[in-house]
Amino acid sequence: MTKISFASHPFLLGFEQLDRLVERTAKSSNEGYPPYNIEQGSEHSYRITLAVAGFRQEDLSITLEDSQLVICGRQTDESESRIFLHRGIAARQFQRSFVLADGVEVAGASLENGLLHLDLRRQAPETVVQTIQISKGDK
Questions:
Q1: Domain 32-77+88-124 has what CATH class?
Q2: For residue 73, with 0-12 CB atoms within 10 Å meaning exposed, 13-18 middle and 19 or more buried, which class applies?
Q3: Distance between CA atoms of residues 1 and 10, nearest Å
Q4: pLDDT of residue 60
Q5: Which of 28, 40, 48, 138 has the smallest number of CB atoms closer than 10 Å to its CB?
Q6: Which helix (DSSP H) or strand (DSSP E) does residue 73 occupy?
Q7: pLDDT profile of the chain (139 residues), mean per 10
Q8: Which residues, listed in sequence order, are joined to residue 64 by a DSSP beta bridge?
Q9: What H or E segment, with its residue span, contains residue 62?
Q10: For residues 62 and 70, is the Cβ–Cβ distance under 8 A?
Q11: What is the pLDDT of residue 80?
Q12: How far apart are CA 28 and CA 139, in angstroms?
């Protein structure tokens, strides 16, 4: 069976990379931890909020490489000096990835009440009209 993608449509020229990006993003979806929300603030602003209770600011890292936003959380396990009678809160590591469209940039990040907020802003693209000259067939 042949796999058909939206990028194979004859009117969508040069979108093969977008098709690969969608496939990679689908494969890299995490198990659901930590839970997150994505909100649209305005036509050109978004906010990603991750529930990171128990993580300190120094336990979290945010990187942006090409168009991939990666949020990692690594807690230091200090349980060797503590005796637990019950341990229901695990020191769990995570990595959550988001792919940003062209023109979307991270405007800022803040940690408040166990919630990590990442504010995103999309720059409105400039409209470019270009006239293409037609040359005669004989070179």
A1: mainly beta
A2: buried
A3: 20
A4: 97
A5: 138
A6: strand 68-73
A7: 63 71 61 90 95 93 93 82 83 89 93 97 87 83
A8: 69
A9: strand 60-65
A10: yes
A11: 74
A12: 50
Domain boundaries, the chain: 32-77+88-124
Mode of pairing for the β-strands spanning 94-99 and 68-73: antiparallel
Residue 43 sits at the vertex; the CA angle it makes with 115 and 30, to the nearest 5 degrees, is 40
3-class DSSP assignment, residue 37: strand
The two tokens of residue 20 are 């690969």
Spatial separation of the C-alpha atoms in residues 17 and 63, rounded to whole Å: 21
Burial class (CB in 10 A: 0-12, 13-18, 19+), 9: exposed
CB 109 within 8 A of CB 116: yes
Amino acid (one-letter) located at 98: F
Dist CA 66 CA 45 (whole Å): 19
pTM: 0.71
The secondary structure of 74-128 as a DSSP string is -----GGG---S---S----EEEEEEPPTTEEEEEEEEETTEEEEEEEEPPPPP-
